[in-house]
Amino acid sequence: MVLFLWHGRKVSYQPRFVTWMDVQMSKIDAPFTNVTLQTFATEGDMALVNQQWEKLGAKYLERLKKNGLLSYEVAKIWNKDTKLMRFVIFRYKSADAYKNCQPIWSEIEKTVFKGAVIKVTAYRGITEEYWSI
């Protein structure tokens, strides 16, 4: 058992020792992650994109899932002065799945982001460690 402090409280944790086989991933099967930072010019731009996504997102997500998108998460950034920033985390089955989804993302850019001023910065990589507690 391991004891540590978390925000001033004592917390105990029973470590689970795993074998290499439990955590080993081949390069082909390693999940691929894309983290995208979105900065909108105005609240209206953000509202427009949100409205379009609500209307069209379900049909795109179905196609993305078939091509290998495992999950996505949208979070508003709260530790900046602006309320016009958010990040989106996309998890794919593999780098190939990511590539297979790119034509769909091109369609999304032309429909969902149409008319909005938005700066997008993307970071991509192979997942090395992932915890879901």
Structure characterization notes:
With 133 residues, the protein is α+β, with helices and mostly antiparallel strands. It contains three helices and six strands. The strands form two sheets. The protein has a four-stranded antiparallel beta sheet with strand order 4-5-3-6. A hairpin with an 8-residue loop joins strand 4 and strand 5 (85-92). Residues 1-8 and 11-28 have low confidence and may be disordered.
Name some characteristics of this structure:
single chain; 133 residues; alpha+beta; Alpha-Beta Plaits; two-stranded antiparallel sheet; globular; disordered N terminus
Task: From the alpha carbons, calculate the radius of gyration and give it in angstroms.
Answer: 19 Å
Number of domains: 1
Helix residue percentage = 25-40%
Mean pLDDT: 81
CATH C-level class is: Alpha Beta
Order of helices and strands: EEHEHEEHE
N-C termini distance:
17 Å
Query: Can you summarize the main beta sheet?
Result: 4 strands, antiparallel
Q: What proportion strand?
A: 25-35%
- State the shape: globular
Helix tally equals 3
The structural class is: alpha+beta
Within the CATH hierarchy, at the fold level, what is the topology? Alpha-Beta Plaits
Q: Biggest sheet: strands side by side, in what order?
A: 4-5-3-6
β-strand number: 6
Blueprint of the fold:
Layout: E1 2-6, E2 9-13, H1 20-23, E3 32-40, H2 43-66, E4 69-76, E5 85-92, H3 95-111, E6 118-126
Antiparallel strand pairs: 1-2, 3-5, 3-6, 4-5
Helix pairs in contact: 2-3
